[in-house]
Amino acid sequence: MSQELDVANAFYFGMLENEIRAAGQPEAVPLLRSHARLRLLAERVVAGEREPHIALTLAVAHRLTDLDIRVDGESGELVSWYLGFLAPHGDESMTAEEAIGVATRTANPPPDTKLEHAAYETMGGRTIFRARWSHEYEGMTVEDDFIEVLVNGKARLPFAMTWRYRTPKLATGPRP
Fold first, then answer.
1. Which of 29, 93, 121, 149 has a 20 to 30 Å separation from 115 between CA atoms?
2. Which helix (H) or strand (E) holds 151?
3. Where are the alpha helices (DSSP H) in 23-91?
4. What phi, psi does 161 have (nearest 5°)?
5. Environment class of 120 (CB within 10 Å of its CB; exposed 0-12, middle 13-18, buried 19+)
6. DSSP character at residue 92
């Protein structure tokens, strides 16, 4: 990154941070650089009355949401997703039955699952609804296999899902 781009970043983000503080939202300042960045489009030398200087053409690149995903490195299958902006400010205004419906529509659990937990919880000052299914294969629970959905009761929306679910490879005979 050029020295000129460093100066432009410091100026631009300094200005935005000051505006965010003036708007009464200082807690948003640390998040700013994770949601926006300056992208260099062009750089040119400009000769003028004084010393030549470098002019930059910049664009602001930004993302609208925090969406974290994990993908299995071998199969490419989605393992989990998390929408951070939907996680806070939850409450129990949605009934447990409605929350189970949201979680079930989100997870679409296969027929060989068993709903083992579905309830509101408060963790770290946040109220969430957690629905968790275990995987049952030929009458046995498959260790470490589960589907879990977290729901924000106030927003009436899911904000996270983890899917650890595989077909067990059963071997016959003694273990090696």
1. 93
2. strand 140-152
3. 29-35
4. -150, 135
5. middle
6. S
The conformation of residue 13, written as its DSSP 8-state character, comes to H
Q: What is the pLDDT of residues 99-114, one digit of tens each?
A: 999 999 999 999 989 9
What is the helix (H) or strand (E) element at residue 86, kind and residue range? Answer: none
Q: Which residues are paired to 122 by β-bridges? A: 127
Q: Is the pLDDT of residue 151 over 70?
A: yes
pLDDT in tens, 16-53: 889 888 888 888 888 777 777 888 888 888 787 777 77
pLDDT of res. 128: 96
Enumerate the domain spans of the chain.
Answer: 3-62, 67-164
Q: How many CB atoms lie within 10 A of CB 6?
A: 10
Element (H, E) at 132: strand 126-137
Q: What is the pTM of this model?
A: 0.62
